[in-house]
């Protein structure tokens, strides 16, 4: 395959998948391959056509939501134009090396139906953006490991090495079940979002919501039923004024801005070592794996 131009389509709620898309882009560019990054919400929200013809290779990136992918990503696949055997790679970011689920094979199948042939799939672990605050040293370490892994993966993709993840039947059933729960959860999470008295009606949440789910009604912020459960509005609010009536335990109290941590030179990336025991031991296995 002669690769002159690559298009990477991605969804990212809180920036992790975007950061990874940028790392892929950087590595492709180092290998002198022109690469475009396209957030899928721009296409879905503005109902723009997807112009895929100019690309020799397509990449798709998404965050893991409840062992699967967010609904917005499935909607995007539905929206894609039909192709004939377009070479494709995928990557997903998850908050844990063990609980990433089985969306890869599901997405591979859905893409195949549309004429996109996935030959390379990647899992990149990033800090969870829900419920649990990761240690800053682990956040930085995950980013550094991602950089190293993506450099290698890009070499494989350029050389057309096949790398498909195996998702057994149990994982696929789990993914299916949890994904339906996530869709329901998203509806309720969105419905029960609220703003506090600190809200200045600046409108950033309205502007940033990937599904146009937030609006201003009679001088108040209104959250609709089409929430993507991506957490973006909650963490981006400059006044920290968005919370959830009943499902507040999903929101990390300290907020979520990993860029500050990655950019902070005084934070060391040394949380996990070969001596790590207990829950985080399996992160080390992920670090040293291919
Ligand atoms: C609603 C929701 C469900 C999630 N479910 C999972 C999960 O099942 N397994 C997992 O490892 N991480 C899970 N995560 C964590 C994200 O996959 C992870 O933090 C990801 O890198 C976020 O990417 P983003 O910043 O591009 O949105 C979930 C996050 C959200 C918001």
Number of self-contained structural domains: 2
**Reading side by side through the largest sheet, how are the strands ordered?**
2-1-3-4-5
Low-pLDDT residue intervals, each spanning 5 or more residues: none
Would you list the SSEs in sequence order as H and E?
EHEHEHEHEHHEHEEHEHH
Give the number of DSSP strands: 9
What's the CATH topology name of the largest domain?
Answer: Rossmann fold
Strand content: 15-25%
Structural class comes to alpha/beta
In this entry the ligands are: flavin mononucleotide
Q: What characteristic shape results from the CA principal axes? A: globular
The number of helices is 10
Q: Tell me the Rg in angstroms.
A: 19 Å
Overall mean pLDDT stands at 95
* Main CATH class of the largest domain: Alpha Beta
Level of helix content? Answer: 25-40%
The CATH superfamily of the largest domain is Flavodoxin domain
CATH-scheme architecture of the largest domain: 3-Layer(aba) Sandwich
Q: How far is the N terminus from the C terminus?
A: 24 Å
Biggest beta sheet summary: 5 strands, parallel
Layout of secondary structure:
Layout (H helix, E strand, L loop, with lengths): L4 E6 L5 H15 L3 E6 H6 L11 E7 L7 H9 L6 E9 L8 H11 L2 E10 L10 H23 L10 H23 L1 E3 L8 H5 L5 E4 L2 E4 L8 H5 L5 E3 L13 H5 L18 H8 L2
Parallel strand pairs: 1-2, 1-3, 3-4, 4-5
Antiparallel strand pairs: 6-9, 7-8
Helix pairs in contact: 1-5
The protein binds flavin mononucleotide.
């Amino acid at each position: 395959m002669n690769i002159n131009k690559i298009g990477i389509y991605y969804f990212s709620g809180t920036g992790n998948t975007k950061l990874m898309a940028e790392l892929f882009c950087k590595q492709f560019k180092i290998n002198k391959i022109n690469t475009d990054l396209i957030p899928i919400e721009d296409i879905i929200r503005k109902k723009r056509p997807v112009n895929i013809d100019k690309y020799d290779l397509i990449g798709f990136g998404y965050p893991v939501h409840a062992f699967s992918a967010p609904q917005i990503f499935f909607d995007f696949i539905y929206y894609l134009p039909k192709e004939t055997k377009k070479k494709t790679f995928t990557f997903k970011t998850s908050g844990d090396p063990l609980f990433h689920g089985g969306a890869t094979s599901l997405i591979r199948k859905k893409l195949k139906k549309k004429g996109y042939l996935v030959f390379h799939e990647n899992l990149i672990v990033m800090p969870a953006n829900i419920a649990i605050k990761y240690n800053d040293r682990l956040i930085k370490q995950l980013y550094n490991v991602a950089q190293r892994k993506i450099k290698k993966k890009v070499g494989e993709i350029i050389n057309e090495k096949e790398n498909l993840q195996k998702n057994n039947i149990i994982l696929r059933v789990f993914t299916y079940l949890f994904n339906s729960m996530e869709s329901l959860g998203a509806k309720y999470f969105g419905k029960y979002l609220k703003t506090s008295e600190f809200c200045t009606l600046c409108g950033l949440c309205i502007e940033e919501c990937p599904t146009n789910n937030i609006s201003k009604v009679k001088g108040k912020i209104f959250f609709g039923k089409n929430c993507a459960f991506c957490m973006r509005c909650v963490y981006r609010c400059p006044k920290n004024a968005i919370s959830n009536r009943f499902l507040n335990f999903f929101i990390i109290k300290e907020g979520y801005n990993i860029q500050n941590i990655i950019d902070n030179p005084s934070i060391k990336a040394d949380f996990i070592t070969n001596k790590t025991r207990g829950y985080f031991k399996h992160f080390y296995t992920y670090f040293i794996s291919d």
